[in-house]
TrEMBL record:
<comment type="similarity">
    <text>Belongs to the RNase HII family.</text>
</comment>
<keyword id="KW-0464">Manganese</keyword>
<keyword id="KW-0255">Endonuclease</keyword>
<dbReference type="Pfam" id="PF01351">
    <property type="entry name" value="RNase_HII"/>
</dbReference>
<feature type="binding site">
    <location>
        <position position="43"/>
    </location>
    <ligand>
        <name>a divalent metal cation</name>
    </ligand>
</feature>
<feature type="binding site">
    <location>
        <position position="135"/>
    </location>
    <ligand>
        <name>a divalent metal cation</name>
    </ligand>
</feature>
<comment type="function">
    <text>Endonuclease that specifically degrades the RNA of RNA-DNA hybrids.</text>
</comment>
<keyword id="KW-0963">Cytoplasm</keyword>
<dbReference type="InterPro" id="IPR001352">
    <property type="entry name" value="RNase_HII/HIII"/>
</dbReference>
<keyword id="KW-0378">Hydrolase</keyword>
<feature type="domain" description="RNase H type-2">
    <location>
        <begin position="37"/>
        <end position="220"/>
    </location>
</feature>
<keyword id="KW-0540">Nuclease</keyword>
<feature type="binding site">
    <location>
        <position position="44"/>
    </location>
    <ligand>
        <name>a divalent metal cation</name>
    </ligand>
</feature>
<protein>
    <recommendedName>
        <fullName>Ribonuclease HII</fullName>
        <ecNumber>3.1.26.4</ecNumber>
    </recommendedName>
</protein>
<dbReference type="GO" id="GO:0004523">
    <property type="term" value="F:RNA-DNA hybrid ribonuclease activity"/>
</dbReference>
<dbReference type="InterPro" id="IPR036397">
    <property type="entry name" value="RNaseH_sf"/>
</dbReference>
<dbReference type="InterPro" id="IPR024567">
    <property type="entry name" value="RNase_HII/HIII_dom"/>
</dbReference>
Length: 220
C-alpha cells in the first residue's frame, strides 16, 4: 500500500470513527430506556405546507446494530434520505406510516391531524412497541408509555429514522401530485408556500390537495 492509499484509508477510518461517535451520542435515550423493551421512534413531516397530507413515521430499530448516517431528515440531502429510507425499511424490526389528508386537516386542525397520523403509524407496526420516543409531543389516545423529546429528531436515532421515513414518504407523494397538478411545482416545493407556489395559487385557485384553512390569506 502506497502513501496515498494509506492516507485515504486513514481518512476513511477517521470519518467512520467520527460517525460512530455521533451515533453513540444520538443513542442516549435508547440506552436510557433499553430496559423497557421495544423502543419506537415517532416523527412527522408536512405540518407547515399549504398543500398535501401530513405524514407520520414510526420505526423500531434493532438494538444490536447501527445504521450509519441516520440523522434528522432536514440535515440530509434528498439522495441520502432516499438511500437511508431503503436501508431503514430493510433493517428495522418494524416500520409504520400514517397519512392524513388535507380535508381531514381542515376538519380537525393540523395538530389533531398530526396526532391522528401518529396513531395510524403506530397501528401499522407489525409488533407492539413498549415505549414511544416522540419528537416533542405526547400523542393522545395511545396506551403506551411515551417520552416527548424536544428536537428529538436530532437527539434520538429512533426518532431520526422515523423522520426519514415520514419525509421520504411525503416527498414521493408530492412528486406524484406534481404529475396531476404540474402548474404548482409540487415536486420542487413539496406543497410549501414558495413564491412561485403562491403565485400559481392566486392565478389558478386551489387544487383538491390544498388545505383550505391554510390558504385563506391567498385565495378569497
Amino acid at each position: 500500500m502506497n502513501k496515498r492509499e494509506e492516507e485515504k484509508k486513514r481518512r476513511q477510518e477517521e470519518r467512520l470513527k467520527k460517525e460512530l461517535a455521533r451515533l453513540e451520542a444520538m443513542s442516549v435515550y435508547e440506552r436510557e430506556y433499553a430496559a423497557c423493551g421495544a423502543i419506537c421512534g415517532i416523527d412527522e413531516a408536512g405540518r407547515g405546507p399549504l398543500a398535501g397530507p401530513v405524514v407520520a413515521g414510526a420505526v423500531i430499530l434493532p438494538k444490536d446494530e447501527q445504521i450509519l448516517y441516520v440523522n434528522d431528515s432536514k440535515k440530509l440531502s434528498e439522495k441520502k434520505r432516499e438511500l437511508l429510507y431503503d436501508e431503514i425499511m430493510e433493517r428495522a424490526l418494524a416500520v409504520g406510516v400514517g397519512i392524513v389528508g388535507p380535508e381531514r386537516i381542515d376538519e380537525i386542525n393540523i395538530l389533531q391531524a398530526t396526532y391522528e397520523a401518529m396513531r395510524l403509524a403506530v397501528g401499522q407496526l407489525e409488533m407492539r412497541p413498549d415505549i414511544l420516543l416522540n419528537d416533542a409531543v405526547t400523542i393522545p389516545g395511545i396506551d403506551i408509555q411515551q417520552v416527548p423529546i424536544v428536537k428529538g429528531d436530532a437527539k434520538s436515532v429512533s426518532i431520526a429514522a422515523a423522520s426519514i421515513i415520514a419525509k421520504v414518504t411525503r416527498d414521493r407523494l408530492m412528486r406524484e401530485y406534481d404529475q396531476v397538478f404540474p402548474e404548482y411545482d409540487f415536486a420542487s416545493n413539496k406543497g410549501y408556500g414558495t413564491k412561485s407556489h403562491i403565485e400559481a395559487l392566486k392565478a389558478l385557485g386551489p387544487t383538491p390537495i390544498h388545505r383550505r384553512t391554510f390558504i385563506q390569506h391567498f385565495v378569497q
